[in-house]
Predict the structure.
Amino acid sequence: MCKVISVVNQKGGVGKTTTTVNLGVGLAKQGKRVLLIDADPQGSLTISLGERNPDQLSETLSDVMECVINDKSLPENFGLLRSTEGVDLMPANIELSGTEVGLFNVMSREYVLKSYIDSVSKNYDYILIDCNSSLGMVTMNALTAADSVIIPIEAAYLSVKGLQQLITTLGRTKKYLNPNLGIEGIVFTKMVGRTNYAKEIKSMVEEIYGKNVRVFGAVIPHSVRAAETSAEGVSIFRHDPRGKVAAAYKKLVKEVLADE
């Protein structure tokens, strides 16, 4: 059975795209069939998987959602790109911004992405959705379609401050739109573990949320090598396979797989 996970945080720069890429590729390395969906008009996930010019793509998530809205049938594998690292990608570009605006006038607008995912889920073990840094209509589609969410956060005050708002939004989504939505866990990213400040922030999150929400044991360390992967268009497993970031993402993959 396919598991759909949205990687979400309304704060930018916390490692959502990096986590989506490396978790997805890591799962594929364990023999899982994986689809990554770019739900951000900036196309960060698409670029991070090697597509240099997402705005030139003729078929993207925007086209898929328009087909669903207009009740048009989708050809097999419509819009999908195959990464050399073993995952499929549903790309996105700036056209998704227009689709988001148009969704406000659509009946059952929160379920458009779910309709597409339901049609392709039989082909995959995991579908990961890289969400935009906002809680707009496309992100609400991603939450409505998901079985669970992974929340990447930095060990920083502003990142943690927005966590309560996000968890409140997830609770409302569960109540009104997706009763099966769960929280897969919180994962710390860009962690400078040797500082007392980072340790205090991490301990505070574990104390406040750890009783009800899993805080992953995997901690993704701050690394220039990790930042380089987006520019290279590859995962950390290809860019720096023996590094500390690759080891941390391997641990995260194991924790996610442990739920099977």
Remarks:
- The first helix runs from residue 16 to 29.
